[in-house]
Amino acid sequence: MKKSILFAVMVSALLFTHCTNPSSNTKSTSMLDSAALQKAYDTVLSGKKVGIYFLRNTNQVEVAITNFGGRIVALVVPDKQNKPTDIVLGYNQLSDYLTKPEAYFGALIGRYGNRIAKGQFRLNDSLYQLATNNGPNALHGGPMGFHNQVWNVERVHSNELVLSYLSKDGEEGYPGNLQVQVTYTLTDSNELKINYQATTDKATVVNLTNHAYFNLNGQGNPSITDHELTILATQYSSVDSTLIPIGAPVPVKGTPFDFTTAKLIGKDIAADDAQIKNGLGYDHNFVLDKKTLNDYVKAAIVYAPSTGIQMEVFTTEPAIQFYSGNFLDGSLIGKNNQKYPYRSAFCLETQHYPDSPNQSVFPSTQLLPGQTLQSTTVYTFGVKK
Ligand code: GLA
Questions:
Q1: Are the C-beta atoms of residues 260 and 252 closer than 8 Å to each other?
Q2: Residue 30's pLDDT band (boundaries 50, 70, 90)?
Q3: How far is the CA of 35 from the centre of ligand 1 (A)?
């Protein structure tokens, strides 16, 4: 376990029809203390070099990413008063990721993001057994999933970081040597683009995502229930009490899961609803409205009135998990000694549906030798007028 190892695509100017990008004339100042962060991240783990890398653009947006788990450690965007605001949860030092209970802050998740029922699936007549690390189910690739691995740094530029990882045949119970490459790119249009690529030498299942926890009022603020959320999904997966989807997706209409027009996250979060109870709030897979499976579409819009910061999510993935930080309980102390209380962040994890390897009606997550998995997710940031 852990202690044993000591935003492509054509996003045009139109993207911000209702937003303005923060002024690019402002003098560039960095909110992140690069030297201190480097000191707190530069080390060697299991013979592999760990570091922290900074992407910056001309609009004062900064992203810090470590190759330990490919984690986004900080993401600084200007608010409506042009004040630099770090909008993701995380830690100031690597040792915290190694020793604190796992929350998957900012991490790349694989080989299979979200849950696989009972940690079991069949593929080509073989039964694969994974570790069950979430009640009866397997979650987020297992205890030593991609979030806990040191990724190779292939390339680093001022606006791009390319990471790779070879997940060996049998690692965490999954078949096939899976070669993964993830490219983080920060553009001058305030897009953080994550591009995923994977190939295998044996049939396997793959579901890759990033697990950034956002608070658009700034990390460490007490709640995200005042954020307005839109999810471009008319269907979601209803789940059992262990968060495994029960059959085909169902309509959001008339339920607390209807975010097809902007709604406060807090509005229905405590509704007397069996699905809200199962998720302890929102922790559900929303099926994106698309013409074809791999279309690149807008998936979600989130807006925090007090800072004016707005984030939009675009993806080629078929679905998105909206998680309202229900397992945060204030016990994790993050950057700048900030407590991370209950529902003080949300995740929007672009993905395939949970438990797809066991549910044949869902889009397939199989990857075969000779195929290349390609997936793109873009987070864009701006200030709403
Ligand atoms: C995902 C899951 C949640 C929870 C978080 C991590 O979003 O769906 O249930 O496990 O990861 O705490």
A1: yes
A2: confident
A3: 32
